[in-house]
């Protein structure tokens, strides 16, 4: 068997065995009929081609014909092909040849010359010509009669073949006819009669996994990766026609059969396959074509009633069509689920003319909606349309958008609404409503687009109340006031609402929310913050918090009181705690001013319960909501001194802020920079601010940038340059009236640079300024930080006393990082005796490990090692328990595994590890193995000898 035949005959062993058996019988004088059937594209023609090659190799004569739709009406067309092929392929016995000539001569008229030759090929003489060939087969030979696509044969040829088959059982003859299963012509009496005469039937089907793999491997001449093979089979359904079309297309594009190229395979749509399917459908009855088109449009939706209505058929005709499609291999007849692979159905969709397809999709959407299918299922029918002119379709798309928002999928909602905006009938109030709804969906993942669509919708709204309702959907913390003149628009809307004179509850609520948003957007304007502080004082000690508008207003005003240092930490903490107690934890809070209240609580250090509130709010929401909540959680982590956790939260927030989100909003950018500065990574803060929307108009971000660059300059001992950056940062903060040192402790940095430069009076002045402002605010962590700076620039015992005061204050705060810094600086102070210094540094080390401040751990470790070297004290030995924990940790075991192995609590494991790090003078687990090998080898050996482990 040739290689090409082995590929064609993959998984065709049963059919081939039937042919072989029939050929053996034919050689012994027993003729028979084999009918080859199969769905569209299963390789019937290729199977017959392979049979012809096999027969020719074995010396079997062959008559061949090919039915086709174009010649269906040609009288004796198939017979003529058989006769013509017989004149070339069959060698007759001499006696038989003479008999045939005589027979032909008797049945013809007797014209002379060329006229006689023409009459011999006349259609009416084809039956006799075929009979003469069939009778002329030599006794030691057999004859194979192949007719492909018999269902296209003309009636006269079918009748003749039926007659000859009645005589075939005594002939050395094998007839093999192929018929397309499910073709309407196969139900015609002549075809059914021939099928009924078959001695054997071979049914070809789609290739299984092994057959498909063999075909693919042979085509590429190399082993194909499983992912690639699986994708090809999924796309083709194992159908040989579709599979070969895909393979050819892949080879033309020189794509290698690897798993990484599965995406390319999924995108392929061979034009040959589309044309082949279109030609096939044109040859089928109208009701079958309409059913195929309807099912192709509906996709994987199984609803016979909707499909029948879409096809315009009654139940009986639809059932007939489904039966035929099942035979054709396009459907599972029982479930009416599509079969044949995804590419085949995509190609069927592509074969539908564009105008017809658009009309069918519109009708399908309406039918699905009427039948009670989910709105999103119906809406998907409208999504591929390049344009719409269908008010019903717009309603379906809006319903789908509502459904998508309810299930927490704002991107899908926006897709539906954008498609609805393509509808040419959507004008006036309808278009305005679509724009507002789209902005509401987009605010969860594309804040800039949401702003643009609100700005586009505002001029189309007729009342001030409608305009106010549209504007307050957008969170002020996500806005860039300069873009789309949104701050100006908001002022105009607020003025219009006030001018309307309406004082009903909904209007008053909108007015409060607008006021809150305006305060949040204008917090950089000193003249506005003065007005806001007067409004804050008007609210009194117990402002009303019943409505969302009242809570938003308090959040904005509390924020301004915080940044301007116009109220104490205790006062604002009490107000913001009450506020959050009355606000349900929802992700939508990020589109209000409420994150400002969370920020205020973080600055006060009063964060009890806030983390749980945020965790509940984060359960749902889009990328924007989750990014803002991550930033809020980062500020809470910083307030506790957990700088490692804070950094992790901000990195997650940055991942959520992809190109569609247009980067993080200014609030998140500022928080990320603050976290980087607290993590001793000013270069990261510099890079991040530069990357994310820094502009000269955003004074706070500009100040943070100068702070980062000042710290970088100080690290490189460029003291004067660092001082200039810190001063510029302070000028930016003073310009906008942001005086709270929690936001940016620029003055203490100025003090330290003056001190390093020998400018001691200026250093003391700058440090005292920060202490005064910190005491006004009153949060222990902030006052402690300022006192540390003042203690560092104050000479002698007075400096040490200030540091002692700072440590005492920070012991009462929740900020372990600030306490770690203060202990380290006090431990390094010249007035601190050596014994106490060691104790302070060890405590600072433990806190540094706890809060993930690796840079502090390294500095403290270096200081402790220097102190040990100078006093020549012996390296502290690990206890037996500490050594065992250290060994397991060095071997890669987790804390949980160590606790389980040794039967101790997780807390005890952590305590032992912290002691090990301190005693070994290493920052963490990574240096454990080397430290044990270097310094405790003898102790480890002794321990092993004693325990026998």
TrEMBL record:
Q: Which InterPro entries match?
A: AAA_16, P-loop_NTPase, Sig_transdc_resp-reg_C-effctor, TPR-like_helical_dom_sf, Tscrpt_reg_LuxR_C, WH-like_DNA-bd_sf
The cross-references to Pfam families, in alphabetical order and at most eight, read: AAA_16 (PF13191), GerE (PF00196)
Gene3D superfamilies named in the record: Winged helix-like DNA-binding domain superfamily/Winged helix DNA-binding domain
Q: Is Nucleotide-binding there in the keyword field?
A: yes
- GO: which molecular function terms? adenylate cyclase activity; ATP binding; DNA binding
Domain of life (superkingdom): Bacteria
Q: What is one GO cellular-component annotation here?
A: cytoplasm
GO biological process, alphabetically ordered: regulation of DNA-templated transcription
State if Nucleotide-binding is listed as a keyword: yes
Any idea where the HTH luxR-type domain is? 871-936
Provide the alphabetized UniProt keywords.
Answer: ATP-binding, Nucleotide-binding
What's the name of the protein? LuxR family transcriptional regulator
Source taxonomy: Bacteria, Bacillati, Actinomycetota, Actinomycetes, Kitasatosporales
């Amino acid at each position: 068997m040739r290689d090409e035949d082995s590929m064609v005959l993959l998984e065709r062993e049963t059919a081939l065995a039937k042919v072989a058996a029939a050929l053996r019988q034919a050689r012994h004088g027993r003729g028979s009929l084999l009918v080859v059937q199969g769905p569209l594209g299963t390789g019937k023609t290729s199977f017959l081609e392979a049979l012809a090659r096999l027969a020719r190799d074995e010396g079997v004569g062959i008559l061949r014909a090919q039915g086709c739709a174009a010649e269906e009406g040609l009288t004796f067309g198939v017979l003529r092909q058989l006769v013509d092929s017989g004149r070339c392929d069959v060698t007759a016995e001499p006696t038989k040849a003479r008999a045939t000539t005589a027979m032909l001569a008797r049945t013809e008229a007797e014209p002379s010359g060329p006229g006689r030759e023409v009459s011999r090929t006349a259609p009416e003489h084809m039956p006799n010509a075929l009979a003469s060939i069939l009778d002329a087969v030599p006794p030691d030979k057999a004859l194979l009669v192949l007719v492909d696509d018999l269902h296209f044969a003309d009636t006269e040829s079918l009748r003749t073949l039926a007659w000859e088959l009645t005589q075939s059982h005594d002939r050395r003859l094998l007839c093999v006819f192929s018929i397309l299963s499910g073709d309407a012509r196969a139900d015609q009496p002549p075809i059914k009669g021939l099928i009924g005469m078959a001695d054997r039937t071979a049914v070809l089907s789609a290739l299984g996994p092994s057959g498909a793999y063999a075909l693919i491997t042979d085509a590429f001449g190399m082993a194909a990766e499983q992912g690639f093979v699986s994708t090809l089979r999924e796309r083709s359904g194992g159908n040989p026609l579709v599979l070969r079309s895909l393979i050819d297309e892949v080879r033309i594009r020189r794509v290698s059969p690897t798993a990484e190229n599965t995406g390319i395979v999924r995108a392929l749509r061979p034009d040959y396959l589309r044309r082949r399917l279109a030609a096939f459908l044109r040859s089928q009855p109208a009701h079958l074509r309409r059913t195929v088109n309807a099912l192709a449009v509906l996709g994987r939706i199984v609803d016979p009633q909707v499909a029948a209505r879409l096809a315009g058929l009654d139940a009986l005709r639809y059932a007939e069509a489904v039966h035929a499609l099942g035979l054709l291999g396009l459907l599972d007849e029982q479930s009416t689920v599509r079969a044949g692979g995804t590419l085949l159905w995509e190609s069927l969709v592509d074969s539908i003319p564009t105008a017809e397809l658009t009309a069918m999709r519109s009708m399908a959407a309406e039918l699905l909606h009427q039948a009670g299918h989910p709105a999103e299922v119906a809406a998907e029918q409208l999504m591929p349309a390049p344009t719409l002119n269908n008010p019903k379709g717009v309603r379906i798309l809006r319903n789908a958008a509502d459904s998508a928002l309810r299930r927490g999928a704002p991107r899908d909602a926006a897709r539906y609404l954008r498609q609805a905006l393509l509808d040419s009938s959507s004008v006036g109030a309808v278009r305005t409503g679509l724009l507002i709804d789209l902005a509401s969906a987009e605010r969860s993942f594309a804040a800039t687009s949401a702003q643009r669509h609100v700005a586009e919708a505002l001029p189309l709204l007729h009342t001030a109340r409608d305009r106010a309702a549209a504007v307050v959907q957008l969170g002020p913390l996500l806005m860039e006031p300069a873009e789309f003149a949104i701050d100006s628009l908001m002022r105009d809307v607020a003025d219009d609402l006030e001018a309307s004179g309406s004082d009903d509850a909904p209007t008053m609520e909108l007015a409060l929310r607008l006021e809150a948003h305006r305060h949040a957007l204008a917090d950089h304007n000193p003249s506005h913050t003065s007005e806001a502080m007067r409004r804050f004082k008007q609210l009194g000690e117990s402002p009303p918090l019943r409505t969302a508008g009242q809570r938003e207003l308090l959040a904005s005003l509390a924020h301004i009181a915080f940044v301007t240092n116009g109220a104490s930490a205790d006062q604002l903490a009490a107000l913001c705690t009450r506020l959050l107690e009355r606000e349900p934890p929802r992700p939508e809070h990020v589109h209000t001013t409420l994150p400002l209240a969370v920020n205020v609580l973080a600055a006060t250090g009063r964060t009890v319960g806030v983390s749980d509130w945020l965790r509940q709010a984060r359960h749902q929401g889009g990328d924007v909501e989750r990014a803002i909540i991550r930033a809020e959680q980062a500020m809470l982590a910083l307030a506790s001194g957990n700088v490692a956790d804070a950094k992790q939260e901000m990195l997650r927030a940055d991942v959520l802020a992809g190109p569609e989100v247009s980067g993080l909003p200014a609030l998140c950018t500022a928080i990320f920079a603050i976290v980087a500065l607290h993590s001793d990574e000013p270069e990261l803060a510099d890079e991040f601010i530069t990357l994310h929307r820094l502009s000269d108009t955003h004074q706070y971000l500009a100040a943070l940038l100068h702070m980062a660059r000042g710290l970088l300059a100080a690290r490189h001992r460029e003291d004067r340059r660092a001082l200039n950056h810190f001063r510029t940062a302070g000028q930016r903060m003073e310009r906008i009236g942001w005086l709270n040192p929690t936001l940016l402790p620029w003055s203490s940095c100025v003090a330290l640079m003056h001190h390093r430069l020998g400018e001691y009076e200026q250093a003391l002045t700058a440090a005292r300024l920060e202490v005064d402002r910190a005491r006004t605010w009153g949060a222990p962590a902030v006052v402690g930080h300022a006192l540390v700076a003042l203690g560092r620039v104050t000479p002698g015992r007075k400096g040490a006393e200030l540091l002692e005061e700072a440590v005492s204050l920070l012991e009462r705060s929740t900020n372990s990082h600030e306490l770690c810094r203060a202990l380290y600086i006090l431990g390094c102070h010249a007035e601190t005796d050596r014994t106490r210094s060691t104790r302070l540094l060890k405590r600072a080390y433990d806190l540094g490990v706890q809060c993930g401040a690796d840079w502090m751990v390294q500095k403290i470790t270096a200081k402790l090692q220097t102190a040990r070297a100078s006093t020549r004290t012996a390296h502290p030995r690990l206890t037996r328990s500490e050594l065992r924990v250290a060994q397991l940790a060095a071997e890669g075991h987790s804390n949980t595994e160590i606790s389980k192995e040794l039967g101790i609590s997780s807390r005890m494991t952590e305590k032992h590890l912290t002691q090990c790090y301190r005693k070994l003078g290493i920052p963490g687990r990574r240096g454990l193995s080397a430290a044990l090998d270097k310094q405790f080898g003898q102790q480890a050996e002794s321990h092993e000898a004693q325990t026998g482990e």
